[in-house]
Amino acid sequence: MALSRGKKMALGLLVALVAAGQIPTQETLPSDPVERPNPVDLSMLLPTNPPRPIQVLFIHHSCGGQLLADHGAEDYEYAKCIFMSHVNGGDLRKRLVEAGFLVNEASYGSVIGDKTDLWDWEATFKKEMERIVDTRLNDARFNGTAANEVVVFKSCYPNNRFGEEIEHAAVVTDDALDAGVEKTLPAPALAGEAPHGEPGAEAPHGEHGAEAAHGEHAEAVAHAGAEENHAEHAVHGEASSEHGEGHGMAHEGPEEEPDLTVSNAQAALKKLLPLFAQRPKTLFIYMTAPPNAGVLAKQPLWKKLAKKAWHKWRKTPTEVDEAKAMGDRARAFNSWVADRDGWLKDYPLKNVLVFDYYDVLTDRGQSNFLTPLFANKIDNTDEHPNFDGNMSAADAFMPFINRAVQRAGLVAPQLTPAARAAEEAAKAAEEAAAKAATLAAEEAARMAALYPDGGAPSPDAGPVAEATPAAEEVPDHLLTPIERKLRHPKRPAKKQLTAGTLSGPPAAVPAPKPEP
């Protein structure tokens, strides 16, 4: 039966609506400027390169590997997530080597780099500290021929997916990180979602070398143009399987991971400081985890509208609300870590610092998520920062680490002119105060010896009749001129009266009487 024109139009409209409802849509999360942390002040130090080579170890997964990698058209892995080149490469390794640092790395499959979630760091540093300072590449070690003086460690973006605090959930204590806690509600489905805590959470975007052994390409990966002695000790140096004992046998973390809440994460990082205090000559740099993408996963328009209507009817938070709250919690945690009045407020040593990778990639407070400027794809769904983001981070990291090694005492500090002038002024004031205190103490000791009973004369008391017997015991040369006069009073000499000493005109002398 033929349809009327009106029915055809209605049917066509219905088909168009159904088709439109299937169109994938994506929601961008709000990006409100936020207050940034106030980090430890390093501005008094010049960002000069160190005067000697310094071994530095990076413990990371994919984002850290791409940050270190050379920027190149193709992705090439030396070992899993240890990239020689990458399309997102930030050139940080190359710049560090040029500045005099010898770069070493540990990532997936190694004892110290396989697990990098917030809960894993305590076990890593507690059980494997000696291995950490001795690591060259994954499980290849120096075997005592050198040692890492700087250790940079970071978790990846799943560790910024914070849930809400649950009143009845157990908070991580100082005694155990594996306390049983009730799990929070699932986080909203962010773009680039991956299972938290699994290697897939940071799986690299590339095909090369996923299963590469760490000695396979040893001869082909030295940096072009790097000095031979630097290349020998850098991460691309000799790495043979004979040093790979324990490869793949990563330490065990907590049997049951706590809820990823801000308070639990803070407690986990606090537990690291006593371990770092045991190695005051090693500089530990915590690199904050990169932010999550600032968009939600794509979904059909009809589903998006249905969800909004459902949440409005139930008066519950939408996915956008939940994701925004998660971003706010990520900002709160990372600001606490980086702020001088946060994680390191009561830490007395200078061997721990924070590089705020999170803040750089959020365009320094313009958002709580990965800024679109640094997003990897047109739809901003990839949490891995692009070339521009990693280059921006490398630009910030180079002066940071140059100042950090000076603050930690690994090399002599190079002060700015203003800081040097302030230091000299403070030193002069300190010396003047010390000199004044010394003089005051000497004067107090002298007066105590002169007047042991505490009866020192007042300036307005007038002359003392005679010195006390105890005062006679003090040698004359220790007395002031006034005190010597008081001890040895002299009577004024008698003056012969003459006419010149009398006031007024001299009296007339009577004439002698004539003799009869």
Mean pLDDT, as a whole number? 77
Task: Determine the fraction of residues in helical runs and give it as a percent range.
Answer: 25-40%
| Class from secondary-structure proportions | alpha/beta
Gyration radius from CA atoms, angstroms: 39 Å
The helix-strand sequence is HEEHEEEHEHHEEEHHHEEHHEHHHHH
Outline the biggest β-sheet.
5 strands, parallel
Strand order of the largest sheet: 6-2-9-10-12
Overall shape: elongated
Q: List segments where confidence is low: pLDDT < 50 over at least 5 consecutive residues.
A: 168-249, 464-472
Number of helices: 15
What portion of residues belong to β-strands?
5-15%
Separation of termini? Answer: 194 Å
Number of strands: 12
